[in-house]
Amino acid sequence: MFINHRQEQWSEWLGTAEFAYNNKMYLSTRTLPFKANYGQDPRMGFEGKKKGKYERAEKFVEKMKKIQEEAKAVLSKVQEEIKKYVMTLRSNSGCNTQVKTQG
User: Fold this and answer.
1) How far apart are CA 33 and CA 29, in angstroms?
2) pLDDT tens-digit profile of 14-68?
3) Distance of alpha carbon 87 from alpha carbon 103, whole angstroms
4) CA diameter of the chain
5) Helix (H, G, I), strand (E, B) or coil at 9
6) Considering only Cβ atoms within 10 Å of each terminal Cβ, which end of the chain, N or C, has fewer?
7) Would you list the domain boundaries of the chain?
8) How many CB atoms lie within 10 A of CB 23?
């Protein structure tokens, strides 16, 4: 993306920036933010229309639950790894402070 030196064009590029952000896979969740929110990949605008019936709402809900459960499991795992890492650092430095997490 290019914004001129006076930064007058930023509003014209805002939609593109949002799409780029939502279409990037993040390591912490291992999914696209758009897919985590809506249960499908974002449309690029050049895909052909699908023929046939649309999937039922129940399938969509189950797919969304699965994606959100996977993201939650990954985040929980990362939280535990960070907790262990911090505890290791603290035990090596002689600090006896407990790490308190929500949950």
Assistant:
1) 8
2) 888 888 887 888 888 888 888 888 888 777 776 665 655 566 777 888 888 999 9
3) 18
4) 65
5) coil
6) C
7) 11-44+59-93
8) 14
**Strand, coil or helix: what is 31?**
strand
* Amino acid identity at 47: E
Instruction: State pLDDT tens for residues 69-81.
Output: 999 999 999 999 9
The predicted model scores a pTM of 0.40
Q: What is the pLDDT of residue 75?
A: 93
Sequence length of the chain is: 103
31: β partners = 26
How distant, in Å, are the alpha carbons of 13, 19, 38, 41, 88 from that of 45?
17, 12, 17, 12, 49
Terminal C-alpha separation, the chain = 41
CA–CA distance from 19 to each of 3, 12, 23, 25, 40 (Å)? 17, 13, 6, 12, 14
